[in-house]
C-alpha cells in the first residue's frame, strides 16, 4: 500500500480538528445516554498521540499501530480507551511480518474489530462504535477481494460509516453505560459510533488529498 505512516501527523491533526469541531454535539449525545465524558476521553488520547506524531511517522504501520494502541490504553479512561487500545494492538499483531497492501490492511482491520467485540463482549446491533467499525471493516474486505479503485472505495467507506451511525438511532443499548437506560436509549445516536465515523472520515480526507 502506498499510504505511508508519513501521513500519520496529518491524520492525527485531522482527527483532532473534527473531534473538536463536533465536541458539543457528541458530548450532548453522550450526556443523553452515557456519562458525557466521551469527547474528553478521546481528546486525552489524541493529545498524547499529537506529542508522538513525528516519532510515529518514522515507523512502519505495524510498529506505529502498536505504539498508538499502547498510548491509547494508558491515556484514555473509559470504555473507549481499552477498546481502541486493543483495536490498534491487535491490528499490529495481525499485520506483523506481512507485506502491507489493501488485503493485509483489511484483514488486520477485521481482526481489530473482532478484538473489540471480544474485549467489550459486544457485537453489531448493540448500539456502540462496533456498528460503524464492523461494516467499514467488511467494506474493506470486500474491496480487497474485488480489487476496487481507491476513490470509489473511500466514498463507500464514508457512506457505510454514516449508515452505521444512523443505524444506532433505533437500537436499544445492551452494552456500556447506555445499557442502564434500556429502552430509553431508542431515538438517540450512540456517541461512540458518531466519533468512530468522524475519525474515519478524517482519515479518508487525508488519503483523498
Ligand atoms: P465510558 O462509557 O466508560 O464513559 P466513553 O464515554 O469514552 O466511555 O465511551 C463510550 C462509548 O464506547 C459508547 O458510546 C460506545 O460506542 C462504546 N462502548 C461502550 N461499551 C462498549 C462495549 N462493551 N463494546 C463496544 N463498544 C462499547
Ligand atoms: Mg462516557
Ligand atoms: Mg466514563
TrEMBL record:
Keywords: Kinase, Transferase. SMART domains: Dak2. InterPro entries: DhaK_L_YcgS, DhaL_dom, DhaL_dom_sf, Dihydroxyacetone_Kinase. The keyword Kinase applies. The keyword Transferase applies. GO terms for molecular function: glycerone kinase activity; phosphoenolpyruvate-glycerone phosphotransferase activity. One of its GO terms (cellular component) is cytosol. Its EC number is 2.7.1.121. Residues 6-205 form the DhaL domain. GO terms for biological process: glycerol catabolic process. This is Dihydroxyacetone kinase subunit DhaL. It comes from Methylomarinum roseum. The gene is dhaL.
Amino acid at each position: 500500500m502506498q499510504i505511508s505512516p508519513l501521513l500519520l501527523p496529518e491524520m492525527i491533526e485531522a482527527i483532532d480538528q473534527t473531534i473538536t469541531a463536533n465536541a458539543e454535539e457528541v458530548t450532548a449525545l453522550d450526556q443523553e445516554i452515557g456519562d458525557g465524558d466521551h469527547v474528553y476521553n478521546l481528546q486525552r488520547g489524541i493529545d498524547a498521540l499529537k506529542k508522538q506524531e513525528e516519532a510515529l511517522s518514522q515507523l512502519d504501520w505495524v510498529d506505529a499501530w502498536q505504539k498508538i494502541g499502547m498510548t491509547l490504553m494508558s491515556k484514555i479512561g473509559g470504555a473507549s480507551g481499552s477498546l481502541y487500545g486493543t483495536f490498534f494492538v491487535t491490528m499490529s499483531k495481525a499485520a506483523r511480518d506481512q507485506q502491507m497492501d489493501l488485503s493485509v490492511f483489511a484483514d488486520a482491520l477485521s481482526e481489530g474489530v473482532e478484538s473489540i467485540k471480544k474485549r467489550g463482549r459486544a457485537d453489531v446491533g448493540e448500539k456502540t462504535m462496533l456498528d460503524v467499525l464492523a461494516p467499514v471493516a467488511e467494506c474493506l474486505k470486500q474491496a480487497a477481494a474485488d480489487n476496487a479503485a481507491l476513490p470509489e472505495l473511500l466514498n463507500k467507506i464514508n457512506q457505510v460509516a454514516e449508515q452505521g451511525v444512523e443505524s444506532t438511532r433505533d437500537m436499544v443499548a445492551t452494552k456500556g453505560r447506555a445499557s442502564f437506560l434500556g429502552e430509553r436509549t431508542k431515538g438517540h445516536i450512540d456517541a461512540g459510533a458518531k466519533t468512530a465515523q468522524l475519525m474515519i472520515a478524517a482519515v479518508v480526507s487525508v488519503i483523498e488529498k
